[in-house]
Design a protein that fits this description.
Strand order of the largest sheet: 14-15-16-13-9-12-11-10-17
Number of helices: 5
CATH class of the largest domain: Alpha Beta
Helix content: 10-25%
Radius of gyration: 18 Å
Largest sheet: 9 strands, mixed
Structural class: alpha/beta
Distance between the termini: 41 Å
Order of helices and strands: EHEEEEHEEEEHEEEEHEEEEH
Shape: globular
CATH superfamily of the largest domain: 2,3-Dihydroxybiphenyl 1,2-Dioxygenase, domain 1
Number of strands: 17
CATH topology of the largest domain: 2,3-Dihydroxybiphenyl 1,2-Dioxygenase, domain 1
């Protein structure tokens, strides 16, 4: 099993896998990596001018760049058949495939860019020694992007890459505002918000249950890191949540009890309103 967790092969989804790690950019990568090591309870090490933050089932690579930038999102596929199927779909859609190499994935991983220019990587994770276990559970579970053309992004990830659509949020005019996409039985491992700009919106760590949300809140309080949003409950996904900010302004979500979805579940449709984002109170609308 990989130190960052193994992919789940639990359904007949076209694309079978799980979010494995992210590369995020920072003008001060060493300081940002130190923050994640302390606040997300990960070990930190320098690799090739970047910083690897690693814990059981969660990991980040922090690289030099603009604050709030996403270098890439890396997904561990269930097996070689899933990787080969993805390669065939990308080639058929004339999507350029680039080779990829880093210490966390086996050779043969593939990299490509989506219509907004975000880089995504899919491959098989290496078997690495487990880092010291943190006190709190928090598997890296999903990443969320803001886009100026959510419809185009949905078409790409659903029809080309092979994600499955779980839920969508529609405004009064019938326009798509948000879509939630999955790669296994969990409600989403990728979401896309319609916004005025292209950017990383947030990334999320899945805790065990409501008590773990409490424990993460207490941990953040001990570090004098204030909760920025929550606790609350999302409509799509039905998960509990709290959000904090890192020093570069990135949103970090701690989530629990994400909805589990069967392959034949119909796509859900939600109204574009605060209650959809937070059934308990205020919602952070992107528009």
């Amino acid at each position: 099993m990989s130190a960052l967790g193994s992919p789940v092969d639990s359904s007949s989804h076209i694309l079978r896998g799980r979010l494995h790690h992210l590369q995020i950019l920072s003008p001060d990568p060493e300081s940002l990596a130190e923050f994640y090591g302390r606040c997300l309870e990960m070990t930190v090490s320098a690799i090739n001018g970047q910083w690897l933050c690693q814990g059981p089932q969660r990991g980040l690579i922090v690289a030099p760049g603009i604050a709030g930038g996403l270098g890439y999102a890396a997904y561990a596929v269930a097996d070689l058949a899933a990787l080969h199927g993805l390669r065939k779909r990308l080639i058929a859609a004339n999507v350029a495939i680039e080779p990829f190499s880093n210490p966390l994935f086996e050779p043969g991983s593939i990299q490509f860019s989506d219509p907004d220019g975000h880089r995504f990587v899919f491959g098989l994770p290496r078997n690495l020694p487990n880092p010291a276990a943190p006190a709190l559970p928090g598997r890296l579970q999903h990443v969320v992007l803001a886009s100026a053309d959510a419809d185009r992004m949905l078409s790409f990830y659903r029809d080309v890459v092979g994600f499955r659509l779980s839920d969508r949020v529609i405004d009064d005019a019938g326009a798509l505002r948000t879509c939630f996409l999955r790669t296994d039985h969990e409600h989403h491992s990728l979401a896309i918000f319609q916004a005025d700009e292209i950017r990383l919106d947030h990334h999320c760590y899945e805790a065990a249950n409501w008590n773990s949300i409490r424990d993460w809140g207490d941990h953040f309080a001990s570090l004098r890191l204030p909760v920025q949003w929550g606790p609350g409950r999302h409509g799509p996904g039905n998960n509990l949540f709290v959000f904090v900010h890192d020093p570069d302004g990135n949103w970090i979500e701690i989530s629990a009890e994400m909805e589990l979805v069967s392959p034949d579940r119909p796509v859900g449709t939600w109204p574009h309103e605060e209650r959809t984002l937070n059934s308990w109170g205020r919602g952070a609308l992107r528009s």
